[in-house]
Amino acid sequence: MISGIAEFARGGLPDPLATNDGNHWIDGICWLYCGQQRTRVLWIGPATVAGVQAPMYACGACIKELQARIWHSLRTHDSPARPAEHGSGARGRGRHRRSP
Question: What is the predicted pLDDT for the residue at 9?
């Protein structure tokens, strides 16, 4: 079973990661909320921008905050608003064309 799922199903939350938990923590820069320059960080996945990727690291406090936001989203079924669909036909098309 995926770690934390059982606790979540019972209404609880799994413990956040900590620097002494057996994961591969390194000294580095936190890429999340605090922006600390020299702290213990853990790789949390790749960050993708404009088609390129870089390894993303976060400190324990920021991972705890991120985890809380993720579990809150799961509990409330939070999802981002869907972007408005662009209209078809005369609306949105050809507005800037000159008349012949």
Answer: 56
Residues 6+ apart with CB under 8 A from 56: 31, 43, 44, 45, 46, 47
Find, among 70, 68, 73, 58, the residue nearest to 18 by Cα: 58
Model pTM greater than 0.90?
Answer: no
CB-based contact 66:31 (threshold 8 Å): no
Q: Where are the domains of the chain?
A: 5-76
Q: How many CB atoms lie within 10 A of CB 7?
A: 13
